[in-house]
Structure formats: structure tokens, C-alpha cells
């Protein structure tokens, strides 16, 4: 078994990675850098999951967030013009409301953390979690699971409607389906 | 009366879909078998330069315009070639002896300038300046691109009356360019038709490129 | 117990004369052994990438009726070393307008993604760096780092071609991950586990024990996975991210020297990874015909080592064969257009792979394993596989024979030139 100091070191490395990535995301002037810094955050969080013996969650975190969400964000960024100008991509609006929101949210988070996870707990033993998660998703939580998939379906339909509607509208004098936004 | 044009046949989409799959599979399969069969065929290309049955220059036509060479024993220093050259890549200098005989100081051809147009060789009345079939002109420094044909001091300019026979084309260049013949030709592989590997190609037909292969 | 713990325990007992279970430094020795194993895997990537690049060029030469590199070393086998040294000595150029940190970091991210996949590849009966419970998912997840790396390279280069290449590559990877995941889901359904070693253990050594010949849907799923994997690896005919005729070289256009080489390493490593995944998920992996994994695990000493080596060899042969197929496909099929690429994925591969999952599920419910119907199905599938091999061999022979006549008439010599005789 890995001794405690080494475990702690690895833990703080993961946590630090997530935190530093988060700070970079927030403070970078270039929004593309922010997006790439998200990678560090996601990887750090995946490491934390692995520490909590949540192997399935760690891998899925990497797959969904890095492979899906991050790539989509990057896509959106790279297809946007003038994205590197800080005035366009991250303008500063409303310092005071921002501060209020920040304080409120962090207070809520700290309260929830202390109330729910105060003190220390023993790490669960490193057991495979896949079977348990699958069981829970398809028996006890099957309704929320299905509701979420309906939500995703709605999102898909919405995207197709928005994109398809624009494509089908014939451009004046041009061939239908060639119009660019 | 408009002639009845049959409406365009719209393929059944389901059939088209599965037809596409079938065609994708069958054409990939077909293509794979064809490329696989090429693994068992003799390659069409020949390894240059040392797997060819004879040196490449010997396979070139006689009229090939390769590097220029001049046979000084037939050169009357009429300067026609130097004047015809559009680029001025030929430089000839002579000096006169007290007894009236003329001696070559320089006869340089800058292969870096030459564009192998053949005007100089055409201008030469005595078949002294001619193209060889030598084409491997790479050298290790820019200076070596200039070939200096005056090999010894006191080489006299020839008289048009009594000219010696032309030395074989390429032999002069072969003698001049350093490093010629040092590189041995690798023997051709034994299998393709049992032709004996050509001997190391030193000899009549121009220099072998020292750096050579690339 | 995997081989790393085995070696570590052996070391502790013989060198330090301590009991591995109670000794406080066991973890350190294990970490060192893991580090050495990682180095070996790293060296494997590098060393594999080299000769395969030479092999690919020789095969490409033969397919295109030319010779290929044969100058460096006997028959050119050292060509890759010459290329490596050349790239190493080249200037590490960073374009002035590039986004410097992103530009510099991208090759390493790409390579990390590829290299991370080696952790769970089951090379032999006990030879796997980490037998994760979520091995297959991990494979799918870690390769997503590659996407981010490619996008990073595309953006950081500050070149429109590089950006096009990066975006194309990411779109392609994200799209083709769906059919490849569905095809692997078929495997997971049959094996009942996500662990790579578990998937191999659920198969057997004989062809009728392999998942590919389990039923028709698995047979199709194998080809669907293989297609999707080629696309994920940006290989021809799906190499749009580096289409020379359109965007010069795609995401790696601004790179030079070692950084460029890292992209190439990642590409070669990726060929190996996809071949290895296909081999262990569909073709029985390292399973030795006639020997159960438990029997191998029960052996001791040199016998153990021998069986390990045999299992390793079997796996390598299967994977190398698939690598060859990938190479041959590259020199067979022309490149797709972008819209064709997306149509292939979303209109054909995705629905078909979903259909395969459904089919495997139905058959799993209807045909109990080990029953008479199962045996007949497997036998039929093995027969189908043999038929495919036989028919393609005959087609090769026919194509060859037709041209042989013409060649003899024209050239006066025989067309036959066996592949083992290198020109």
C-alpha cells in the first residue's frame, strides 16, 4: 500500500492541478487559453475521483468532459471570428453584481461542504464501481435517467430545428441550402 | 407538343442505402485484392544508379546535351563558342608566344551558369566543344562547378590545318573531374534476368558522380 | 497478481531479503518497477514506430510498383534511424506569430494521449501494466487527450491550414468515437466486463472462441470498429486532417524537428493501438489455443516465462497482421471528401453499429452460450471467415494471372517477384 505522505502528495497534486487550472480559466486574457486550461481542471478532478476509488467516474469524467464538452467548447471558439480579442471574448461587465454572486455562491458551497462532509471519512475500499452504478441507474434511478435522456433528445431536436430551418430557407437569387449565416 | 420526357427515376432510398453499403464493401474488397496482388509483382522501377544493367549515361541518346567538354587539341581558340553563349559561361584566354604560336591561359566552363542550350557546340567548327552524356553534375563546392580544361601550362592552340582526331566524348571530362571512378558500382542483384553485374564503370564514358546516390 | 507485482516481490525477496507484504518500502520498489515498465513501453512505441515506418514505405513501394527505401543499412532497415537523427538535428522552429505555450505543449499532449493507452493493452497472459476495471472506457477516454492536443496544435500554429487540420481532426475523432464505442459495446456485452484482461479471458485460443466469430453481428462489428478506428487514427482513406492536396499537412504543418517527430510517433503508436484493440477485443488477444489462462498462471519458473512469451508472440502476430492491413488499406483506397466522411460516420457506421448492439443483445438472450445453436453459429461464422480468406486469395491469384500473361508478352520475363525477396 502506498504510504500516507505519498498519497497526500498525490492528492494535493491533483487538487492543485484542478485549482490552478480553474484559476487560469478565470484569469486568462485569451479565451482560447481559458478553454485549454479547462483540460487541467478536468484532469485534476478526474484524479480526485480516482482517489475516491470512483474509477468509473474518473474515466467518464475524462471521456465526457475532455472528449466531449471541452472539444465542443474549443470548436465553438475556433469557429468564432476575433475570438482572441479580450474586449470581444471576455469583456468586464458588472463588477458589483459579480462580487455579490461570487460571495453568495462561495458561501453556499462552503456551507454545504462543511455541513455535509465536515470532518474526515475513511476512503472506501478500491472496488469496481461499474456494476453498482449500472444497477442503480437501471433500477432505483431509472426514471431520472430516462428523463435526462428525454432532455438530451429535446436538445438534439432543438439543434436540428435551428440549423435545419436556416438551411432550408432559400437564399434570394441563390440555390437553396447554400446560405451562410 | 412537348416530347414526353420520362420523369427522372428516383432510386428507392432504402435500396440506395444498402446498395451503397454493398458497393463500399465490394469495392474495398476488390481494391484490397488488387493491391495485394501487386505485392507479388516485379517492381517497374530500377534502383538508380547502381542497380541498372549499365551506367545510365550509356542508355541516353547520342545527342543528349549533358555537361560540356572541349578537346583542346582540336580547339583553335576562335572564341565563337564564348561569343555565342547567351550566359557567358565559357571564358577563354590565350597569350601569344614570340614565335607566333598561341598558348591557352584559361578555358573554363561554368556548369553552374550553363543552361545546356547547345548553341556553343553548334557554333564550334572543329568539333572541339561538344556535349557529353554526363549529367551527374553535383559537386561538393560551388567552385568545382567550373571545369578548367587547361590541364597543363604551355598547351598550344591548335591549327585548323592539321587537327588530331576527336578524342572519345566524355573521356576528357572523366580525366578532369576529381574523384571519378573512386566509387564502385554495387553489383546488381543476382536474380533479375541473369545478366552479369557490370564491372566498375571506370572507362570511356565520363565521370561517375562522387557523392552519387541520394 | 500481475507481472509487475510479481517482479517487484521477487526483487524484494532476493535483493532486500524482506517480506513484501510487511516491508515498508514495497510501494517504492513497485513504483520503480512500474517506471521501468513504462520506459519499456515508451521504448516500444519509439522502436515500433521506426521499423513500421520502414515496412510501410517498402510495402507502399511494392504496391506502387517501385522499390522504396533500401539504402541505409541492409535493405534499408536502418532508414528510420537516419530519419530520426535527421529530425533530431533539425532546428526546433516556432513561428513568430504562433501562440507559443500552446504550440510547444501540443505534441506532448498528443503523445501522452497515445502513450496512456498502452497502460491497459494486454500484451500477454500476465503482461499488462494495469488491469483496470474500466479498461475499455479508459482507452476511449485517454485518446480524447489526443483531440485536445490536435486542436491545440492547430490553434497554436496560427496558420489557417493547421487550424483547418486541427478542427477537421477533432470533428472526425468526436464523430467516429460513437461507432467505435458502440462496436466495443458489443464486445463488452459478450464479455460482461470492461477490463481488457477480462475481455481476453472471455475468449479462447481457437478461432471459434474469438468474439469475431461468435455471431454475424460480432463479425460485422469487427469491421465497423476497424473502419472507425482507422478514421480515429487519421489514416487514409480518412486522413482529411493531413490531406496534402487540400491543407498541405494539416495540424503538424508548422512543426519541425523533434516536435514533428512526436506527431509521427503518435500516429504510428495509434496504428499499433487500434490494431491491438481489435486483436484483443475481437481476435482472442493473447490466448494460446488449447491452454487455459488458469493453466498458464499455475505454472512456475521457466515454464511460466515460456508460456508468457508464447502468449505475447501470439498477440504481437495478430496485432502486426492488422497493422499490415491498415497499411495496405492506406495504399488501396482514395481519400474521402469531408461530407462523405461525415455521411459515412453518421448515416452508415452509427446506425449499423447500433444495429449490431441490438443484434448481439437479442442473440445473447436467444442463443445460450455452449448450446447447440451457439456451436452451429460459431462454426458457420468460422466457415464464413475462411471463405472470405479463400475468396480473396483466389481473387489475388486471378488478378495476378491475367497481368502475368501480358507482362510476359511485353517484357519477356516473369512477373512473379515474391514479397520476401526485397529488391
Descriptive notes:
The complex is a heterotrimer of chains A (181), B (214) and C (423). With 181 residues, chain A is mainly alpha-helical. Chain A folds into two domains: 94 residues, NADH-ubiquinone/plastoquinone oxidoreductase chain 6, subunit NuoJ (Four Helix Bundle (Hemerythrin (Met), subunit A), Up-down Bundle), CATH 1.20.120.1200; 41 residues, no CATH class. Chain A has seven helices and no strands. Chain A is globular, with a radius of gyration of 22 Å. Chain B is of the alpha+beta class and 214 residues long. Chain B is 21% helix and 12% strand. Chain B contains five helices and five strands, in the order H-H-E-H-E-E-H-E-E-H. The termini of chain B are far apart. The C terminus of chain B is likely disordered. Chain C is built from 15 helices and no strands. The model of chain C has no long low-confidence stretch (mean pLDDT 83). The interface between A and C is medium-sized, with 27 and 31 residues.
Write the layout of secondary structure elements.
The complex is a heterotrimer of chains A (181), B (214) and C (423).
Chain A: H1 4-27, H2 31-51, H3 55-78, H4 86-89, H5 95-117, H6 130-138, H7 142-168
Helix pairs in contact in A: 1-2, 2-3
Chain B: H1 13-38, H2 56-59, E1 68-70, H3 80-84, E2 90-96, E3 102-110, H4 119-123, E4 129-131, E5 146-148, H5 171-176
Chain C: H1 3-16, H2 26-63, H3 79-89, H4 100-117, H5 135-142, H6 144-156, H7 160-191, H8 196-201, H9 216-232, H10 244-247, H11 257-282, H12 293-298, H13 301-330, H14 338-366, H15 372-411
Helix pairs in contact in C: 1-2, 2-3, 2-11, 3-11, 4-6, 4-11, 6-7, 7-9, 7-14, 9-11, 9-14, 11-13
Which band does the percent of strand residues of chain C land in? under 5%
Structural class of chain A: mainly alpha
CATH 2nd-level architecture of the largest domain in chain A: Up-down Bundle
Largest sheet of chain A: none
Major sheet attributes of chain C: none
First and last CA, distance of chain A:
59 Å
Q: Greatest contact pair?
A: B-C, 29 and 35 residues
Q: Give me the count of strands of chain C.
A: 0
This entry's quaternary arrangement is: heterotrimer
Q: Predict the CATH topology of the largest domain in chain A.
A: Four Helix Bundle (Hemerythrin (Met), subunit A)
Low-pLDDT sequence parts of chain A: 174-181
Q: Kindly state the percentage of residues in helix of chain C.
A: 55-70%
Strand content of chain A: under 5%
Nearest-angstrom radius of gyration of chain A? 22 Å
Tally of contiguous helical segments of chain A: 7
Please give the radius of gyration of chain C in angstroms. Answer: 23 Å
The residue-averaged pLDDT of chain A reads 80
Amino acid at each position: 500500500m502506498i504510504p500516507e505522505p505519498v498519497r497526500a502528495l498525490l492528492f494535493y497534486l491533483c487538487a492543485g492541478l484542478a485549482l490552478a487550472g480553474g484559476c487560469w480559466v478565470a484569469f486568462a486574457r485569451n479565451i482560447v487559453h481559458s478553454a485549454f486550461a479547462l483540460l487541467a481542471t478536468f484532469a485534476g478532478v478526474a484524479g480526485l475521483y480516482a482517489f475516491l476509488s470512483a474509477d468509473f467516474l474518473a474515466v467518464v469524467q475524462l471521456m465526457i468532459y475532455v472528449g466531449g464538452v471541452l472539444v465542443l467548447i474549443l470548436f465553438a471558439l475556433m469557429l468564432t471570428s476575433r475570438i482572441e480579442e479580450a474586449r470581444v471574448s471576455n469583456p468586464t461587465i458588472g463588477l458589483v453584481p459579480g462580487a455579490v454572486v461570487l460571495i453568495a455562491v462561495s458561501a453556499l458551497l462552503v456551507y454545504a461542504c462543511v455541513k455535509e462532509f465536515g470532518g474526515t471519512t475513511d476512503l472506501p475500499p478500491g472496488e469496481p464501481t461499474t456494476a453498482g452504478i449500472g444497477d442503480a441507474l437501471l433500477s432505483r434511478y431509472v426514471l431520472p435517467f430516462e428523463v435526462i435522456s428525454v432532455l438530451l433528445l429535446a436538445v438534439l431536436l432543438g439543434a436540428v430545428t435551428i440549423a435545419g430551418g436556416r438551411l432550408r430557407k432559400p437564399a434570394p437569387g441563390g440555390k437553396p441550402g447554400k446560405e451562410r449565416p | 407538343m412537348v416530347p414526353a420526357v420520362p420523369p427522372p427515376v428516383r432510386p428507392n432510398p432504402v435500396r440506395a442505402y444498402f446498395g451503397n453499403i454493398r458497393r463500399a464493401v465490394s469495392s474495398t474488397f476488390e481494391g484490397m485484392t488488387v493491391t495485394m496482388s501487386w505485392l507479388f509483382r516485379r517492381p517497374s522501377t530500377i534502383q538508380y544508379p547502381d542497380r541498372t544493367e549499365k551506367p545510365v549515361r550509356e542508355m541516353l541518346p547520342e545527342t543528349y546535351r549533358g555537361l560540356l567538354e572541349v578537346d583542346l587539341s582540336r580547339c583553335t581558340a576562335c572564341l565563337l563558342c564564348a561569343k555565342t553563349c547567351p550566359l557567358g559561361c565559357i571564358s577563354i584566354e590565350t597569350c601569344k608566344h614570340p614565335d607566333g604560336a598561341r598558348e591557352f591561359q584559361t578555358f573554363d566552363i561554368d556548369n553552374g551558369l550553363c543552361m545546356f542550350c547547345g548553341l556553343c557546340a553548334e557554333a564550334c567548327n572543329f568539333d572541339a566543344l561538344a556535349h557529353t552524356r554526363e549529367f551527374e553534375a553535383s559537386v561538393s563546392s560551388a567552385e568545382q562547378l567550373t571545369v578548367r580544361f587547361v590541364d597543363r601550362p604551355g598547351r598550344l592552340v591548335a591549327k585548323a590545318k592539321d587537327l588530331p582526331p576527336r578524342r572519345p566524348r566524355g573521356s576528357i571530362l572523366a580525366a578532369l573531374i576529381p574523384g571519378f571512378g573512386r566509387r564502385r558500382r554495387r553489383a546488381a542483384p543476382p536474380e533479375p534476368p541473369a545478366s552479369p553485374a557490370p564491372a566498375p564503370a571506370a572507362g570511356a564514358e565520363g565521370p561517375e558522380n562522387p557523392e552519387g546516390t541520394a | 497478481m500481475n507481472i509487475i507485482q510479481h517482479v517487484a516481490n521477487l526483487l524484494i525477496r532476493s535483493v532486500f531479503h524482506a517480506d513484501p507484504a510487511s516491508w515498508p518500502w514495497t510501494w517504492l520498489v513497485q513504483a520503480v518497477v512500474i517506471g521501468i515498465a513504462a520506459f519499456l513501453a515508451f521504448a516500444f512505441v519509439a522502436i515500433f514506430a521506426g521499423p513500421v515506418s520502414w515496412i510501410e514505405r517498402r510495402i507502399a513501394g511494392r504496391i506502387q510498383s517501385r522499390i522504396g527505401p533500401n539504402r541505409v543499412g541492409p535493405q534499408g532497415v536502418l532508414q528510420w534511424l537516419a530519419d530520426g537523427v535527421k529530425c533530431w538535428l533539425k532546428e526546433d522552429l516556432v513561428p513568430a506569430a504562433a501562440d507559443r505555450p500552446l504550440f510547444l505543449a501540443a505534441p506532448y499532449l498528443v503523445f501522452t494521449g497515445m502513450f496512456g493507452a498502452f497502460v491497459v493493452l494486454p500484451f500477454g497472459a500476465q503482461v499488462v501494466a494495469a488491469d483496470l476495471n474500466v479498461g475499455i472506457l479508459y482507452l476511449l477516454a485517454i485518446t480524447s487527450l489526443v483531440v485536445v492536443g490536435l486542436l491545440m496544435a492547430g490553434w497554436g500554429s496560427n496558420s489557417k491550414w493547421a487550424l483547418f487540420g486541427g478542427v477537421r481532426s477533432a470533428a472526425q475523432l468526436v464523430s467516429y468515437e460513437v461507432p467505435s464505442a458502440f462496436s466495443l459495446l458489443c464486445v463488452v456485452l459478450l464479455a460482461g466486463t470492461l477490463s481488457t484482461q477480462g475481455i481476453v479471458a472471455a475468449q479462447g485460443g481457437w478461432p471459434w472462441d474469438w468474439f469475431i466469430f461468435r455471431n454475424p453481428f460480432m463479425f460485422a462489428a469487427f469491421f465497423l470498429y476497424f473502419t472507425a478506428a482507422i478514421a480515429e487514427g487519421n489514416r487514409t482513406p480518412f486522413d482529411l486532417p493531413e490531406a496534402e492536396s487540400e491543407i498541405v499537412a494539416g495540424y503538424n504543418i508548422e512543426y519541425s524537428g523533434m516536435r514533428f517527430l512526436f506527431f509521427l510517433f503518435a500516429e504510428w503508436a495509434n496504428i499499433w493501438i487500434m490494431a491491438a484493440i481489435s486483436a484483443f477485443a475481437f481476435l482472442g488477444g493473447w490466448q494460446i489455443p488449447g491452454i487455459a489462462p488458469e493453466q498458464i498462471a499455475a505454472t512456475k519458473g521457466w515454464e511460466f516465462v515460456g508460456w508468457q512469451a508464447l502468449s505475447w508472440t501470439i498477440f504481437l502476430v495478430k496485432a502486426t497482421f492488422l497493422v499490415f492491413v491498415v497499411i495496405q488499406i492506406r495504399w488501396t483506397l482514395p481519400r474521402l471528401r469531408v461530407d462523405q466522411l461525415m455521411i459515412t460516420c453518421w448515416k452508415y457506421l452509427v446506425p449499423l453499429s447500433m444495429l449490431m448492439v441490438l443484434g448481439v443483445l437479442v442473440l445473447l438472450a436467444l442463443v445460450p452460450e455452449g448450446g447447440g445453436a451457439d456451436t452451429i453459429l460459431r462454426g458457420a461464422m468460422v466457415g464464413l471467415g475462411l471463405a472470405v480468406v479463400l475468396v480473396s486469395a483466389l481473387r489475388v491469384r486471378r488478378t495476378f494471372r491475367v497481368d502475368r500473361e501480358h507482362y510476359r508478352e511485353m517484357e519477356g520475363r516473369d512477373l512473379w517477384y515474391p514479397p520476401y525477396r526485397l529488391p
